[in-house]
Design a protein that fits this description.
The protein has about 240 residues and is α+β, with helices and mostly antiparallel strands. It folds into 2 domains: about 160 residues, Beta-Lactamase (2-Layer Sandwich), CATH 3.30.450; about 55 residues, Arc Repressor Mutant, subunit A (Orthogonal Bundle). Helix content is about 45%, strand content about 15%. The protein is built from 9 helices and 5 strands; from the N terminus they run αββααβααββαααα. The protein has a 5-stranded antiparallel beta sheet with strand order 2-1-5-4-3, with helices on both faces. The termini are far apart.
């Protein structure tokens, strides 16, 4: 069956993600975020990988607002994308202005609505057994996705999962002459958070969970990302004191 004969594909005959064909494998997720905004009634999209400690690490975003909301969820450790990564199931927050969704994530809901986003749809990346991250869709108007729209979102998440799992290992990550790689950069950012947590544990004499909570709290209080504050801790530009 040709793509144009399949009701799941949008008009025009190209399946979701078709525009990403021929892109370097590392650039496919970012391209798919852009495609998601074109195919679905959303204003932004981002993708995050789930770290071993459950901390989301932003992989890509369609724009600054989507990147901001992904970072806010990582900093808070809470939100639809965090929940979807934890459960491995889609999380559809249809109205962050009031009701159950606003009550479920009150701080994130306040941050999202403040920048004009009133609905978020988070789709897990990976398999039924293992969730490696999420594709997150942001919408200015409240409401849900129709059945066909949700199918398209699921297909995009499937294509993104395939792109991620098809990435080569080791030195093959590099492309276009880059000395470093996009996944190496993500790993470095996650390592900085781990290092910062260890340093805060030593500075305050607390456990890992408390140290991570302090790191997140400091980031949110300063309207910064947890990765930015972690970098300051690792480079000794910020220290946590018991009296602070």
């Amino acid at each position: 069956m040709r793509p144009s004969d399949d009701p799941r594909w949008p008009p025009g005959g190209e399946p979701p993600g078709g525009e990403a064909r021929g892109s370097p494998s590392g650039g496919v997720p970012e391209r798919l975020c852009v495609v998601a905004v074109r195919l679905l009634p959303v204003s932004g999209a981002s993708a995050s990988l789930r770290g071993g400690d459950g901390l989301p690490v932003r992989l890509c975003a369609s724009g600054d607002r989507a990147a901001y909301l992904a970072e806010i969820q990582a900093t808070l450790g809470d939100g639809p994308c965090v929940r979807a990564a934890e459960t491995g199931a889609p999380v559809l927050a249809r109205d962050l202005r009031s009701g159950a969704d606003a009550d479920r994530w009150p701080v994130f809901a306040q941050q999202a609505t403040a920048v004009g986003v009133n609905a978020v749809y988070a789709l897990p990346l990976g398999s039924e057994a293992v969730c490696v991250g999420t594709l997150d869709l942001y919408r200015e108007t409240p409401g849900g996705l129709t059945g066909p729209e949700l199918n398209t979102a699921r297909l995009l998440a499937g294509v993104m999962t395939t792109a991620l799992t098809a990435l080569p290992r080791g030195e093959e990550y590099a492309f276009d002459g880059a000395e470093d790689t996009w996944l190496s950069g993500l790993a470095a950012g996650r390592d900085e958070v781990h290092q910062a947590v260890g340093m805060i544990m030593a500075q305050l004499g607390v456990g890992a969970d408390e140290a991570l909570a302090r790191l997140r709290g400091a980031a949110f209080a300063r309207s910064r990302t947890v990765h930015d504050v972690a970098r300051d801790v690792v480079t000794h530009r910020q220290r946590f004191d018991r009296d602070g």
